[in-house]
Amino acid sequence: MTSGLLVLLAYSAALVAFGVWVGRRVEGARGFFVANRRLGPLLLFATILAANIGAGSTVGTAGIAYRDGLSAWWWVGSAGIGTLLLALWIGPRIWRIASKNGLLTMGDYLTLRYGRSIRAMIAVLLWFATLTIVASQLIAMAEIVGVITDQPRWVGALLGGVLVIIYFSVGGLVGSAWVNLVQLIVLTLGFAIALPWALSGAGGWAAVKDVGLGSSDDYLNFWHGGSSGLIYLALLGPAFIISPGLVQKVYGAVNERAIRVGLVAAGVGLMVFAFAPTLIGMIARVHAPDLLNPERALPILLMTGLPPAVGMLVLAAVFSAEVSSADAGLFMLSTSLSKDLYKGYLRPEASDAQVLRVARLGAIVGGLLGIVLALLLDSVISSLTIFYSLLSVSLFIPVVAGLYSRRAGAIEAWAAIGTGLAALAAVRLFAPAGAPPIVDGTLIGIVVSALAFTIVLALRNKQRKGTI
């Protein structure tokens, strides 16, 4: 066993021990799901930011930057913009509704607003989609373990899956929040050390620029490069405004001020952090210009372009980022299974203890399925794109419109969800190769979903007036 793997295992064991120690005090579903609504600005900032800096924000973004250049910033930057909108727009409003009505999950909100049928449909859809989030984090962990030890993907995926399952299934949101704070400290320290060191080792910015422009004329174009750029805002912006996992963390806030302060800080943090993996991916092209798998750019740079001790520190930080995002996925999986399907639809009379048992079982099952899926999917970014696309086109319009329209009901929600998913599928299946970036399935799906919701609502309002 290599010394690098020993470092990761020791770090993983420390995370598990800390998560179990914090989670031992969790009693009841309310504590598990929303931390008894006691998250202040600091913990809310830490759990939101750490959960959003995962496989896509590190390994995935570095891979995009290695391939396309500076425009990779928009993968993480778009998440930051979405988080700011959640902080200042949707978050405080939906928190008031959740606090007033005792809501614990996004499914509770959908039931309150549209009825049980919408809750069940979204829960089933997102349960399977969310498996891709867990899988993407495990793919990234497997790439790190693979670079260190040259072991096959299943070894790293199994290690990461077991780690996340143990500490999340014990502690729920409160355990995750405290572990996220530790991970965020390690991650920030690691990248702060690695970035200037790696840039100096590559020969400075001039060398990075020369190598990048040698591969593509738009390598330094901030707005668009290759298949990357501003178009990511359509995919990631809406998803980070209404993501059930993030909204549920908002439910756990102690008050509206905590939401605004904590999430604004997290959004700004994401937008600043976005430059780190982007620059590291671009620097990696200097050290390894012929990688077959761009998503190995970050771990390979950390192993070969930095002193061993520094490289391992940052790899541990990146590994922790994947852990925190994987637990966010398990959080959504356990919530959907226990609250939205089990208690919300199958057994409304279920006790608090029964719901908590199903939640922990859901986290275990979801983690195991995530391990299997990590062995089947190709890459981090392709896995995450599946989730974000389905989330945005199915949930964005019903959630946002439900906060402002009292007349809209299940019929409007069904229309929005069905047409949005159909439009997404149509673009993915029939859009010609080489179509312009504006022909994006997620963007078109959201627009079609909004039109369907509005048209059905207008027709029903006209019908109501005609019957008066």
Multimerization status: single chain
Strand line-up across the major sheet: 1-2
Shape type? globular
Q: Which consecutive residue ranges, at least 5 long each, have pLDDT under 50?
A: none
Which band does the percent of strand residues land in? Answer: under 5%
Keywords:
two-stranded antiparallel sheet, 468 residues, Sodium/glucose cotransporter, globular, single chain
Could you give the topology of this structure?
Blueprint: H1 3-23, H2 28-34, H3 41-52, H4 56-68, H5 73-101, H6 106-114, H7 116-149, H8 153-201, H9 205-215, E1 224-225, E2 228-229, H10 232-242, H11 244-251, H12 256-273, H13 275-287, H14 297-304, H15 308-346, H16 352-374, H17 380-404, H18 410-430, H19 441-467
Antiparallel strand pairs: 1-2
Helix pairs in contact: 1-8, 1-15, 2-8, 3-8, 3-12, 3-15, 4-13, 5-10, 5-12, 6-7, 6-15, 7-8, 7-15, 7-16, 7-17, 8-13, 8-15, 8-16, 9-13, 10-17, 13-14, 14-15, 15-16, 17-18, 17-19, 18-19
Describe it.
The structure is a single chain. With 468 residues, this protein is mainly alpha-helical. It has 2 domains: 3-380, Sodium/glucose cotransporter; 405-468, no CATH class. It contains 19 helices and 2 strands. It has helices at residues 3-23, 28-34, 41-52, 56-68, 73-101, 106-114, 116-149, 153-201, 205-215, 232-242, 244-251, 256-273, 275-287, 297-304, 308-346, 352-374, 380-404, 410-430, 441-467; strands at residues 224-225, 228-229. Helix 7 (116-149) packs antiparallel against helix 15 (308-346) and helix 15 (308-346) crosses helix 16. It is globular, with a radius of gyration of 22 Å.
